[in-house]
Amino acid sequence: MSDAFLVFFFSNRQGRRAREGSRGAARGQRGDDAWHHDRVKAATKTKPRVRRATKTTKATKPTKPTARTSPAKAPRSASRPARTTAKLTTKGAPKVSARAGAKAKKTPARRTTRAASAPASASSGQRADFGAPVDRFFAKQPAHIQPITNTLRALVEEAARDATAVIKWGVPVYEIGGKMMCSISAHKAHVNLVLWGKPSAFPDPRGKLSGAKSGRHLKVTSVDEIPRADARRWLKAAAELARARA
Question: pTM of the prediction?
Answer without folding.
Answer: 0.50
